[in-house]
Amino acid sequence: MNKGYRSTLLTYGSWWLVWFCIQTWALHHVGLDWKEALVDAAITTNTLTLAWVAAQFSLKYYEPGKGNRWYRFILAIALTVLSSIIINYILKEIYADNIGYLTYLEKSWAIRFAFSFLMISFMTLIGMTITAMKEQQENLKRKEEAESLSRDAELASLRQQIQPHFLFNSLNSISALAGSRPEEARKMIQQLSDFLRGTLKKDEKQLVLFSEELQLLQLYLDIEKVRFGHRLIIELNPDENALNMKLPALLLQPIVENAIKFGLYDTTGETTIKMLVKTDNNLLIFQVENPFDAQTAKPKKGTGFGLSSVQRRLNLLYFRNDLLSTQQKENIFITTVKIPQSV
Protein backbone atom coordinates (compact mmCIF):
# COMPACT_ATOMS: atom_id res chain seq x y z
CA MET A 1 0.00 0.00 0.00
CA ASN A 2 1.61 3.24 -1.14
CA LYS A 3 1.79 6.37 0.95
CA GLY A 4 -0.75 8.32 -1.11
CA TYR A 5 -3.35 5.56 -0.87
CA ARG A 6 -2.85 5.24 2.91
CA SER A 7 -3.26 8.99 3.30
CA THR A 8 -6.51 8.97 1.29
CA LEU A 9 -7.85 5.99 3.22
CA LEU A 10 -7.01 7.66 6.53
CA THR A 11 -8.75 10.89 5.45
CA TYR A 12 -11.97 9.16 4.44
CA GLY A 13 -11.85 6.85 7.47
CA SER A 14 -11.56 9.84 9.80
CA TRP A 15 -14.41 11.57 7.99
CA TRP A 16 -16.63 8.48 8.32
CA LEU A 17 -15.90 8.18 12.07
CA VAL A 18 -16.65 11.87 12.72
CA TRP A 19 -19.99 11.73 10.96
CA PHE A 20 -20.89 8.43 12.62
CA CYS A 21 -20.29 9.97 16.04
CA ILE A 22 -22.20 13.16 15.17
CA GLN A 23 -25.18 11.23 13.83
CA THR A 24 -25.23 8.89 16.83
CA TRP A 25 -25.27 11.83 19.22
CA ALA A 26 -27.97 13.63 17.19
CA LEU A 27 -30.24 10.55 17.11
CA HIS A 28 -29.85 10.00 20.83
CA HIS A 29 -30.54 13.69 21.42
CA VAL A 30 -33.92 13.47 19.62
CA GLY A 31 -35.09 10.58 21.80
CA LEU A 32 -33.61 7.27 20.64
CA ASP A 33 -31.74 5.14 23.14
CA TRP A 34 -28.02 4.61 22.60
CA LYS A 35 -28.41 1.17 21.01
CA GLU A 36 -30.99 2.39 18.49
CA ALA A 37 -28.91 5.47 17.76
CA LEU A 38 -25.76 3.40 17.17
CA VAL A 39 -27.53 0.93 14.85
CA ASP A 40 -29.31 3.69 12.91
CA ALA A 41 -26.10 5.74 12.52
CA ALA A 42 -24.05 2.70 11.45
CA ILE A 43 -26.55 1.63 8.78
CA THR A 44 -27.10 5.19 7.51
CA THR A 45 -23.40 6.10 7.41
CA ASN A 46 -22.32 2.85 5.73
CA THR A 47 -25.09 3.05 3.14
CA LEU A 48 -24.22 6.65 2.30
CA THR A 49 -20.55 5.68 2.07
CA LEU A 50 -21.43 2.98 -0.48
CA ALA A 51 -23.48 5.54 -2.39
CA TRP A 52 -20.51 7.89 -2.41
CA VAL A 53 -18.25 5.09 -3.68
CA ALA A 54 -20.77 4.45 -6.48
CA ALA A 55 -20.73 8.17 -7.34
CA GLN A 56 -16.92 8.24 -7.44
CA PHE A 57 -16.85 5.12 -9.61
CA SER A 58 -19.35 6.71 -12.00
CA LEU A 59 -17.47 10.01 -12.19
CA LYS A 60 -14.19 8.17 -12.72
CA TYR A 61 -15.41 6.87 -16.07
CA TYR A 62 -17.56 9.84 -17.01
CA GLU A 63 -16.50 13.33 -16.02
CA PRO A 64 -19.26 15.76 -17.12
CA GLY A 65 -18.13 18.87 -18.90
CA LYS A 66 -19.17 22.44 -18.27
CA GLY A 67 -22.20 22.05 -20.49
CA ASN A 68 -23.50 19.03 -18.58
CA ARG A 69 -23.30 20.07 -14.94
CA TRP A 70 -26.80 18.73 -14.21
CA TYR A 71 -25.36 15.22 -14.39
CA ARG A 72 -23.88 15.54 -10.89
CA PHE A 73 -27.15 16.82 -9.45
CA ILE A 74 -29.22 14.05 -11.05
CA LEU A 75 -26.68 11.44 -9.92
CA ALA A 76 -26.85 12.74 -6.33
CA ILE A 77 -30.69 12.67 -6.36
CA ALA A 78 -30.76 9.13 -7.76
CA LEU A 79 -28.26 7.81 -5.21
CA THR A 80 -30.12 9.59 -2.39
CA VAL A 81 -33.41 7.97 -3.37
CA LEU A 82 -31.79 4.56 -3.64
CA SER A 83 -29.94 5.01 -0.32
CA SER A 84 -33.12 6.12 1.47
CA ILE A 85 -35.03 3.05 0.22
CA ILE A 86 -32.23 0.72 1.36
CA ILE A 87 -31.84 2.41 4.77
CA ASN A 88 -35.60 2.34 5.45
CA TYR A 89 -35.89 -1.28 4.39
CA ILE A 90 -33.03 -2.46 6.63
CA LEU A 91 -34.14 -0.46 9.66
CA LYS A 92 -37.77 -1.62 9.32
CA GLU A 93 -36.57 -5.21 9.17
CA ILE A 94 -34.44 -4.79 12.29
CA TYR A 95 -37.09 -2.91 14.29
CA ALA A 96 -40.23 -4.54 12.88
CA ASP A 97 -41.69 -5.01 16.37
CA ASN A 98 -40.64 -1.56 17.70
CA ILE A 99 -43.68 0.65 17.07
CA GLY A 100 -42.07 3.70 18.65
CA TYR A 101 -38.98 3.55 16.44
CA LEU A 102 -41.06 2.89 13.30
CA THR A 103 -43.17 5.93 14.09
CA TYR A 104 -40.02 8.03 14.47
CA LEU A 105 -38.65 6.62 11.20
CA GLU A 106 -41.85 7.54 9.37
CA LYS A 107 -41.92 11.12 10.68
CA SER A 108 -38.22 11.81 10.03
CA TRP A 109 -38.01 10.63 6.41
CA ALA A 110 -37.93 14.16 4.93
CA ILE A 111 -35.10 15.30 7.20
CA ARG A 112 -33.20 12.05 6.61
CA PHE A 113 -33.63 12.40 2.85
CA ALA A 114 -32.32 15.96 2.90
CA PHE A 115 -29.41 14.91 5.12
CA SER A 116 -28.56 12.01 2.81
CA PHE A 117 -28.63 14.28 -0.25
CA LEU A 118 -26.36 16.84 1.38
CA MET A 119 -23.95 14.16 2.58
CA ILE A 120 -23.71 12.46 -0.82
CA SER A 121 -23.30 15.81 -2.63
CA PHE A 122 -20.69 17.06 -0.17
CA MET A 123 -18.69 13.83 -0.14
CA THR A 124 -18.82 13.66 -3.94
CA LEU A 125 -17.60 17.27 -4.17
CA ILE A 126 -14.73 16.51 -1.77
CA GLY A 127 -13.80 13.41 -3.75
CA MET A 128 -13.82 15.34 -7.03
CA THR A 129 -11.66 18.08 -5.49
CA ILE A 130 -9.10 15.55 -4.25
CA THR A 131 -9.10 13.80 -7.64
CA ALA A 132 -8.61 17.12 -9.45
CA MET A 133 -5.73 18.04 -7.14
CA LYS A 134 -4.06 14.66 -7.76
CA GLU A 135 -4.46 15.06 -11.52
CA GLN A 136 -3.00 18.56 -11.31
CA GLN A 137 -0.01 17.24 -9.35
CA GLU A 138 0.49 14.41 -11.84
CA ASN A 139 0.27 16.84 -14.78
CA LEU A 140 2.78 19.13 -13.08
CA LYS A 141 5.09 16.17 -12.44
CA ARG A 142 4.84 15.06 -16.06
CA LYS A 143 5.54 18.61 -17.22
CA GLU A 144 8.61 18.85 -14.97
CA GLU A 145 9.85 15.46 -16.23
CA ALA A 146 9.34 16.56 -19.83
CA GLU A 147 11.21 19.82 -19.18
CA SER A 148 14.00 17.90 -17.46
CA LEU A 149 14.32 15.52 -20.42
CA SER A 150 14.34 18.51 -22.77
CA ARG A 151 17.11 20.18 -20.75
CA ASP A 152 19.12 16.95 -20.70
CA ALA A 153 18.76 16.59 -24.46
CA GLU A 154 19.83 20.19 -25.04
CA LEU A 155 22.82 19.83 -22.70
CA ALA A 156 23.88 16.67 -24.55
CA SER A 157 23.47 18.46 -27.87
CA LEU A 158 25.61 21.37 -26.69
CA ARG A 159 28.37 19.03 -25.58
CA GLN A 160 28.26 17.09 -28.83
CA GLN A 161 28.74 20.35 -30.71
CA ILE A 162 31.63 21.51 -28.50
CA GLN A 163 33.68 18.31 -28.57
CA PRO A 164 33.97 17.96 -32.38
CA HIS A 165 34.80 21.68 -32.61
CA PHE A 166 37.84 21.24 -30.36
CA LEU A 167 38.72 17.83 -31.81
CA PHE A 168 38.88 19.08 -35.40
CA ASN A 169 41.15 21.97 -34.40
CA SER A 170 43.48 19.59 -32.56
CA LEU A 171 43.61 17.08 -35.41
CA ASN A 172 44.44 19.85 -37.88
CA SER A 173 47.29 20.94 -35.63
CA ILE A 174 48.56 17.34 -35.31
CA SER A 175 48.45 17.02 -39.08
CA ALA A 176 50.49 20.21 -39.46
CA LEU A 177 53.07 19.03 -36.90
CA ALA A 178 53.40 15.46 -38.22
CA GLY A 179 55.76 16.37 -41.04
CA SER A 180 57.94 19.05 -39.47
CA ARG A 181 57.83 18.17 -35.75
CA PRO A 182 56.81 14.50 -35.36
CA GLU A 183 57.85 14.31 -31.69
CA GLU A 184 55.58 17.19 -30.82
CA ALA A 185 52.81 15.63 -32.92
CA ARG A 186 53.09 12.36 -30.93
CA LYS A 187 53.10 14.31 -27.67
CA MET A 188 49.99 16.19 -28.75
CA ILE A 189 48.24 12.94 -29.71
CA GLN A 190 48.92 11.55 -26.22
CA GLN A 191 47.69 14.74 -24.59
CA LEU A 192 44.58 14.75 -26.75
CA SER A 193 43.93 11.13 -25.83
CA ASP A 194 44.21 11.91 -22.11
CA PHE A 195 41.94 14.92 -22.48
CA LEU A 196 39.24 13.04 -24.39
CA ARG A 197 39.43 10.12 -21.96
CA GLY A 198 38.78 12.52 -19.09
CA THR A 199 35.91 14.31 -20.85
CA LEU A 200 34.13 11.09 -21.84
CA LYS A 201 33.82 10.16 -18.16
CA LYS A 202 31.98 13.38 -17.35
CA ASP A 203 28.24 13.89 -17.49
CA GLU A 204 26.73 17.18 -18.73
CA LYS A 205 25.02 17.83 -15.39
CA GLN A 206 27.73 16.39 -13.14
CA LEU A 207 29.29 18.74 -10.65
CA VAL A 208 33.02 18.24 -10.17
CA LEU A 209 35.61 19.79 -7.90
CA PHE A 210 37.38 22.79 -9.36
CA SER A 211 40.69 20.97 -8.79
CA GLU A 212 39.48 18.17 -11.14
CA GLU A 213 38.28 20.65 -13.74
CA LEU A 214 41.64 22.40 -13.48
CA GLN A 215 43.47 19.19 -14.36
CA LEU A 216 41.43 18.79 -17.56
CA LEU A 217 41.93 22.45 -18.35
CA GLN A 218 45.68 22.01 -17.95
CA LEU A 219 45.60 19.12 -20.44
CA TYR A 220 43.77 21.35 -22.89
CA LEU A 221 46.32 24.14 -22.40
CA ASP A 222 49.19 21.70 -22.93
CA ILE A 223 47.66 20.79 -26.29
CA GLU A 224 47.28 24.44 -27.24
CA LYS A 225 50.88 25.16 -26.19
CA VAL A 226 52.05 22.49 -28.62
CA ARG A 227 50.01 24.20 -31.34
CA PHE A 228 51.19 27.74 -30.66
CA GLY A 229 54.57 27.13 -29.01
CA HIS A 230 56.17 30.15 -27.32
CA ARG A 231 53.43 32.46 -28.63
CA LEU A 232 50.98 31.27 -25.95
CA ILE A 233 51.70 32.41 -22.41
CA ILE A 234 49.36 31.36 -19.62
CA GLU A 235 49.05 33.12 -16.28
CA LEU A 236 46.86 31.19 -13.84
CA ASN A 237 46.28 32.36 -10.30
CA PRO A 238 43.84 30.03 -8.53
CA ASP A 239 42.58 30.76 -5.04
CA GLU A 240 43.25 27.74 -2.83
CA ASN A 241 39.79 28.14 -1.30
CA ALA A 242 38.30 27.53 -4.74
CA LEU A 243 39.91 24.12 -5.27
CA ASN A 244 37.20 22.31 -3.29
CA MET A 245 34.31 24.23 -4.80
CA LYS A 246 32.15 22.59 -7.45
CA LEU A 247 31.12 23.51 -10.95
CA PRO A 248 29.56 21.78 -13.98
CA ALA A 249 32.02 19.48 -15.70
CA LEU A 250 33.84 20.80 -18.79
CA LEU A 251 32.52 24.34 -18.34
CA LEU A 252 35.80 26.25 -18.46
CA GLN A 253 37.43 24.84 -21.60
CA PRO A 254 35.13 26.70 -24.06
CA ILE A 255 35.77 29.96 -22.19
CA VAL A 256 39.55 29.58 -22.40
CA GLU A 257 39.31 28.41 -26.02
CA ASN A 258 37.38 31.57 -26.85
CA ALA A 259 40.11 33.69 -25.24
CA ILE A 260 42.84 31.90 -27.18
CA LYS A 261 40.87 32.27 -30.40
CA PHE A 262 40.51 36.05 -30.06
CA GLY A 263 43.98 36.47 -28.59
CA LEU A 264 46.16 34.39 -30.96
CA TYR A 265 44.38 33.52 -34.19
CA ASP A 266 44.91 36.89 -35.83
CA THR A 267 48.35 37.70 -34.40
CA THR A 268 51.91 36.45 -34.91
CA GLY A 269 53.52 37.61 -31.68
CA GLU A 270 53.31 36.42 -28.09
CA THR A 271 49.96 36.58 -26.34
CA THR A 272 49.30 36.31 -22.63
CA ILE A 273 46.06 34.76 -21.42
CA LYS A 274 45.37 35.63 -17.79
CA MET A 275 43.08 33.46 -15.69
CA LEU A 276 41.95 34.53 -12.24
CA VAL A 277 40.07 32.26 -9.85
CA LYS A 278 38.49 33.61 -6.68
CA THR A 279 35.59 33.08 -4.32
CA ASP A 280 32.92 35.47 -3.16
CA ASN A 281 30.56 34.21 -0.47
CA ASN A 282 28.73 31.34 -2.17
CA LEU A 283 30.18 31.92 -5.63
CA LEU A 284 33.12 30.46 -7.51
CA ILE A 285 34.35 33.16 -9.90
CA PHE A 286 36.48 32.34 -12.95
CA GLN A 287 37.78 35.26 -15.01
CA VAL A 288 39.75 35.16 -18.26
CA GLU A 289 41.50 38.14 -19.86
CA ASN A 290 42.87 38.14 -23.38
CA PRO A 291 44.20 40.90 -25.65
CA PHE A 292 42.57 41.38 -29.01
CA ASP A 293 42.93 43.38 -32.17
CA ALA A 294 39.82 45.54 -32.45
CA GLN A 295 40.07 45.57 -36.26
CA THR A 296 40.15 41.80 -36.66
CA ALA A 297 38.62 40.19 -33.57
CA LYS A 298 35.67 42.57 -33.09
CA PRO A 299 34.42 41.01 -29.83
CA LYS A 300 31.51 43.42 -29.66
CA LYS A 301 29.87 41.67 -32.59
CA GLY A 302 29.63 38.34 -30.81
CA THR A 303 31.36 36.03 -28.42
CA GLY A 304 31.11 32.95 -30.60
CA PHE A 305 29.58 29.52 -30.12
CA GLY A 306 31.83 28.68 -27.15
CA LEU A 307 30.54 31.41 -24.84
CA SER A 308 26.95 31.12 -26.05
CA SER A 309 27.04 27.39 -25.22
CA VAL A 310 28.39 28.15 -21.73
CA GLN A 311 25.66 30.76 -21.23
CA ARG A 312 23.01 28.25 -22.28
CA ARG A 313 24.38 25.51 -20.00
CA LEU A 314 24.39 27.82 -17.00
CA ASN A 315 20.83 28.88 -17.75
CA LEU A 316 19.66 25.26 -18.05
CA LEU A 317 21.44 24.13 -14.88
CA TYR A 318 20.91 27.13 -12.60
CA PHE A 319 17.90 28.85 -14.22
CA ARG A 320 19.79 32.14 -14.28
CA ASN A 321 21.08 34.25 -17.17
CA ASP A 322 23.37 36.55 -15.19
CA LEU A 323 26.21 34.10 -14.48
CA LEU A 324 28.28 34.86 -17.59
CA SER A 325 29.40 38.34 -18.51
CA THR A 326 31.89 39.93 -20.89
CA GLN A 327 33.44 43.38 -20.99
CA GLN A 328 36.03 45.28 -22.98
CA LYS A 329 38.72 47.52 -21.50
CA GLU A 330 40.74 49.16 -24.25
CA ASN A 331 42.33 46.18 -26.05
CA ILE A 332 41.58 43.64 -23.31
CA PHE A 333 38.55 41.35 -23.49
CA ILE A 334 37.36 39.99 -20.12
CA THR A 335 35.05 37.02 -19.63
CA THR A 336 33.67 36.30 -16.16
CA VAL A 337 31.66 33.28 -15.10
CA LYS A 338 30.10 32.83 -11.67
CA ILE A 339 29.14 29.38 -10.41
CA PRO A 340 26.74 29.22 -7.43
CA GLN A 341 27.59 26.54 -4.91
CA SER A 342 23.96 25.60 -4.34
CA VAL A 343 21.40 24.96 -7.08
What does this structure look like?
The protein is 66% helix and 13% strand. With 343 residues, the chain is an alpha+beta fold. The strands form two sheets. Strands 2-4-5-7-6 form a five-stranded mixed sheet. A two-stranded antiparallel ribbon has the order 1-3. Strand 6 (324-329) and strand 7 (332-340) form a beta hairpin. Helix 5 (109-180) runs antiparallel to helix 6. The relative contact order is 0.06. Residues 299-303 have low confidence and may be disordered.
Short description:
By secondary structure, this protein is α+β, with helices and mostly antiparallel strands. The chain contains 9 helices and 7 strands.
Biggest sheet: strands, sense, closure? 5 strands, mixed
Give the full name of the CATH homologous superfamily of the largest domain. Answer: Histidine kinase-like ATPase, C-terminal domain
Tertiary shape: rod-shaped
Give the number of helices. 9
- CATH-defined topology of the largest domain: Heat Shock Protein 90
Query: Share of helix among residues?
Result: 55-70%
Q: DSSP strand (E) fraction? A: 5-15%
Which ranges are low-confidence, i.e. pLDDT below 50, for 5 or more consecutive residues? Answer: 299-303
Compute the CA-based radius of gyration: 37 Å
Strand order of the largest sheet: 2-4-5-7-6
- Separation, N- and C-terminal Cα atoms: 34 Å
Q: Structural class of the secondary structure composition?
A: alpha+beta
Instruction: Please give the CATH architecture of the largest domain.
Output: 2-Layer Sandwich
